[in-house]
Amino acid sequence: MPIVLSTGCDEGSTYVASDDGGGDASVAPDGPVDVRPDSGVEQEGGMTPPEPTVVEYEVACGSGEMYWPEEQDEIRWSVHCAGELAAADGLPDGASFDPSSKSIVWKPRLDQAGPFEIVVTDVDGGRTRIAGNLLDRFDAPDNVPVVDPVRYLHEHGLPVIHLSWHSDEPQYCRDAVARDPVPADIIVDGVAHAGAELRCRGATSLAFPKKSFTLRFTKDAPFHAPPSLAAFEGRRRLVLTQTFDDNSQIRTRMGFETWSRLDPANIRIDHASVVVFVDGVYQGLYQLTDNVGDHLMAARGLDKDGNIFKSVSHAGNYRTSYNNGKAKTDLKDGYEKSDGEPEDDFEDLETLLRWVSESSIEEIEASIDAMLRTEDFLDWYILMTTLLAYDNYGKNSNVYRDSDGPDTRFRYIPWDLNATWGQSWDTKRVLPTAAGKDSPAPLAHNGIWERIAESPTLLARLDARFAAALAGPMSLVETLALFDRMSAEVRPSALRDDRRWDAERRAYPLWSSRKDLTTFDTEHAYLRSWIEQRWTHLAAFYLPGQASGVQLER
């Protein structure tokens, strides 16, 4: 039985970048998405690759839609024009045009992945455009790498980033060893970036078979962004985050977008979904984000020479003692300095830690708005406790300070949001009702939050801001709308990612004992339900009367 797709396209498939105060740099199309019903069959041990199939597209006369078939499919476009058809220009190699049946038939080879554009002309001069990108059938036994990465630009409307690197280490980015950056070929939208570099990144994730990358670009050849990634134009550092431990494909993006929505003055992390190929070989769906560093600070109107400190372990708890109460002999234990000179100067951080731990509560209340942009740190609490992001209560955080600038307050910047939205760092499920308003865990891991909670005045300020967020930019309605939009945007590509990684994901030792492993679709059913339950749980504490119209303080 052939698959008949009446639209067969991503209507309006150019994704327009957003820079309206949120960080979402990728917007889903308005039209229907061409999702192959044969995206793989779930069975014991993972997904089985789909067999090539007959795909029939019904094309309206005069349309100009986008199509995303795969190599080896038997493709048939039936063009519905009232008059006779005269010609079809731009036929790919192996395709044929039959004017009597008003159809084009094509069974592409495994070396033909890339764009195509066919223009059908009728006897009256009318034109019907049939265009798109023939997708690489990466799991075919005899498949070959993409022949021309300069021309292979999109998959299901998402931009493709092509990577290759040059290293004397045969295992570079193939084992679990962190190494220095190496020269790399980075091709985006047909543009090769001269002088670019790449390195693999991560801690636990460095051992994953699907790697994360930091991309580095030169001053003379910064990131060239296609229209769908315009928010990243001119960047010098970007991060490609793997989704091996998040087959929802959107947890990180959902977190960063929610952070931006809480307050437009928060330091925004732009984000988008992209497809990655390495040496012409499909690697799957990734989350592209800003890199937290001096260039991002400059892009946000802050001094690029300010200091950025990152909490890299639970010892980085924003106090002068460990979580067990033992005093630290080295206050910088648990942190690294990611930007700022001199590299070994932690004076700003130590000033913050001593202020947190040694000030009286009266001194905290009197000086907090001079020491911190307090809204950053309240929103940090709101976001991470809402998402039950235990791994982000203290660690996986960045603080920035421009100590010799006009605004010397500390700023907060989020990072590493895979252990959120109902899963832990090792993908285990987290109950949506696991913690409520007065859970002690966040305060135990974060000295700043602990001091805020000690002050009735500051705690009331936090509670009011939390309630305003749940009634406004982080409401259940807004959050589910964001979730549904991102889910629709990535689903066609996510199903291909499932085909590539599902078996290895299920077999990975860190979570292979789980009996509740999911595919993209079942993970999204779980995640949507989790959001509904979590928000209902929080509303009982912060919105008992379902307050509305509350405005965030600025």
List keywords for this structure.
alpha+beta; Immunoglobulin-like; 5-stranded mixed β-sheet; 25% helix; elongated; disordered N terminus
Task: Spell out the blueprint of helices and strands.
Blueprint: E1 3-5, E2 41-43, E3 46-48, E4 54-60, E5 64-67, E6 74-80, E7 85-89, E8 96-98, E9 103-106, E10 114-122, E11 127-134, E12 154-155, E13 158-165, E14 182-188, E15 191-192, E16 197-201, E17 212-216, E18 237-241, H1 251-262, E19 271-278, E20 281-290, H2 294-299, E21 307-311, E22 335-339, H3 347-358, H4 361-371, H5 374-386, E23 397-401, E24 411-414, H6 441-445, H7 447-454, H8 456-471, H9 476-507, H10 520-542
Parallel strand pairs: 1-4, 4-6, 5-11, 13-19
Antiparallel strand pairs: 2-3, 6-9, 7-10, 8-9, 10-11, 12-13, 13-14, 14-15, 14-16, 16-17, 17-18, 18-20, 19-20, 21-22, 21-23, 23-24
Helix pairs in contact: 8-10, 9-10
How would you describe the overall organization of this protein?
There is one protein chain. The chain has 554 residues and is an alpha+beta fold. It folds into three domains: 3-134, Sandwich (Immunoglobulin-like), CATH 2.60.40; 156-242 and 268-290, no CATH class; 303-554. Helices cover 25% and strands 23% of the residues. It contains ten helices and 24 strands.
Shape: elongated
Output mean pLDDT: 91
Number of discrete helical segments:
10
Q: What's the helical proportion of residues?
A: 10-25%
Short note summarizing the structure:
The chain is an alpha+beta fold and 554 residues long. Helices cover 25% and strands 23% of the residues.
